[in-house]
């Protein structure tokens, strides 16, 4: 790994071995700037992206369904207006969760003709000639993964996409996809609150040389300690709905007790609970040769800066063990989603 000149503790990591992509060790999830997490402020969002690039956070993550469509446009405008320009960014987007312009959810779509059309539309909205990392957002169980990845591979051959990824894919799906074209990264939820991939997914990634891009590494904000009731969330924030059971009733109370344990350890270390939780995810980079680049999402500069400061938190093996004892792997209450039907497991 090589140190970034923009922040003393921000490094780079390499996702994948057969088709390696070097990215900043910490990325930025841009979804909440346009959708799902309440109020939107485009000016602040652009400032957040520009500040990220200034700090060396150059791995930006979006998707066509965020907005829908508007988040890609926002990210594209921010990149075009940045001092770094397009060449200083590793740009990732996703297709497969099909939505209409009015926000209506159509469903998961992995048909080859849709793959091609979605990529062309994303390129237009982003205002770029090539996408660095193109993910299938969710696996379409009605379309063989070989057909979907075959169409994605055609995009690489056409020069529209550089590297391929999957999101929330099961081990067998990953193997079959990788046999068609090298998969650079798997994006999936991973945090102190979500560790199930350690059983079967992570070993396959290490075996095949596929990188891991954890989304929601802060447990959708719970691990920051800033959410104590759903009243703390903005109006229209989807976390206050039944779609996220971990934020409801008894489950929330139980999860907040775990957050309190994280806070107690963070206070001893002189950092925030969110920084400690993010440092835990970052500590997995390089283990078993696996490149790991989490993409905590935020739409505000101050939270971005707090996340970047997590790279300065040093966790010894003893501290890691203490943290994992404070938050046992299966202690979190509630499912990740109210409807897990689109998760390929």
UniProtKB/TrEMBL annotation:
The UniProt record lists the keyword Transport: no
UniProt name for this protein: Oxidoreductase
InterPro entries: Aldo-Keto_reductase, NAD(P)_OxRdtase_dom_sf, NADP_OxRdtase_dom
A molecular function GO annotation: oxidoreductase activity
Upper taxonomic lineage: Bacteria, Bacillati, Actinomycetota, Actinomycetes, Micrococcales
Organism per entry: Litorihabitans aurantiacus
GO cellular component: cytoplasm
One Pfam family from the record: Aldo_ket_red
Domain annotation NADP-dependent oxidoreductase: ranges: 26-326
Keywords linked to the UniProt accession: Oxidoreductase
């Amino acid at each position: 790994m090589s140190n970034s000149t923009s922040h003393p503790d921000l490094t780079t990591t390499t996702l994948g071995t057969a088709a390696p992509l070097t990215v900043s060790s910490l990325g930025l999830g841009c979804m909440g700037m346009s959708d799902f997490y309440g109020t939107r402020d485009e000016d602040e969002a652009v400032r957040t992206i520009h500040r990220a690039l200034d700090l060396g956070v150059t791995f930006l993550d979006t998707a066509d369904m965020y907005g829908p469509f508007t988040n890609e446009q926002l990210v594209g405008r921010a990149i075009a207006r940045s001092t770094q320009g397009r060449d200083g960014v590793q740009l990732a987007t996703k297709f497969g969760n099909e939505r209409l312009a009015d926000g209506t959810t159509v469903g998961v779509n992995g048909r080859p003709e849709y793959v091609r059309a979605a990529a062309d539309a994303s390129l237009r909205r982003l205002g770029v000639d090539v996408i660095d990392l193109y993910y299938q957002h969710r696996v379409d169980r009605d379309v063989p993964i070989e057909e979907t990845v075959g169409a994605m591979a055609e995009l690489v051959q056409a020069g529209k996409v550089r590297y391929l990824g999957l999101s929330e894919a099961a081990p067998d799906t990953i193997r079959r996809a990788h046999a068609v074209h090298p998969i650079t990264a798997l994006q999936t939820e991973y945090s102190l609150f979500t560790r199930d991939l350690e059983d079967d997914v992570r070993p396959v990634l290490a075996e095949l040389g596929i990188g891991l891009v954890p989304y929601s590494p802060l447990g959708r904000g719970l691990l920051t300690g800033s959410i104590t009731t759903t009243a703390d969330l903005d109006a229209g924030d989807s976390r206050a709905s039944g779609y996220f059971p971990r934020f409801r009733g008894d489950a929330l109370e139980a999860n907040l007790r775990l957050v309190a344990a994280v806070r107690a350890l963070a206070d001893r270390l002189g950092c925030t609970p969110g920084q400690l939780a993010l440092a835990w995810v970052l500590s997995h980079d390089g283990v078993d040769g696996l490149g790991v680049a989490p993409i905590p999402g935020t739409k505000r500069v101050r939270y971005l800066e707090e996340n970047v400061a997590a790279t300065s938190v040093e966790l010894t093996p003893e501290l890691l063990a203490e943290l994992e004892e404070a938050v046992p792997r299966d202690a979190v209450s509630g499912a990740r989603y109210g409807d897990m039907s689109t998760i390929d497991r």
